[in-house]
Amino acid sequence: MASSKKIITRPDWEKLLDNVHVMKEDMNKLVMNFFVTEGYVDAAEKFRMESDIDLSTIMDRMAVKQAVQSGNMVDAIEKVNDLNPLILETNPHLYFHLQQQKLIELIREGKIAEALDFAQDELAARGQENQCLLEELEQTVALMAFEDAANCPVKQLMDMSQRQKTASEVNAAILTSQSHEKDPMLPSLLKKLIWVQNKLGEQASYPKIIDLSSAKLEETK
Q: GO cellular-component terms in the record (predicted)?
């Protein structure tokens, strides 16, 4: 049975693409949004002359992120408060997670007595107010019951990925406070592009983009 799909040749498709005009300013903003959101300071600085986005707070935000990733939670909390005290005042879950990460770091360093005191003084009350936070606290405290964290059922809390998770949460909160998108727009647009290509492919045979990094088109059959 012959295919009912419309066939669009590569020359015809390229002519259609040539008729689509994208403003350079819009493309610049999209690229800058990715650099700013992901914290690529050097790239953003080089791109600054082609965008009107303020880059003055990127270094401060990256300093917070790096402090969390290195396990220095006291420094991270101080830096967040220096940026904007309302970030933690209005986001108790975020503050709890920063304090939880500090507890994890104390356990990692083997400071068990100090960790117990910290959990009781700083986290217990917050856990009593919220069942979800209480469960997270109980899981964290469970780390102290094992001499070897590798044998603990919640050993993932000791992984570097836990620091990264907390760092990403802080980064998103800071971006939101600065009226920036917490996630870059570019990955979302690429996902939409793939979805649109697949939907169009149900109706027509045309040269799809087969390499997003180079925008290389496939040949139509």
A: cytoplasm; nucleus
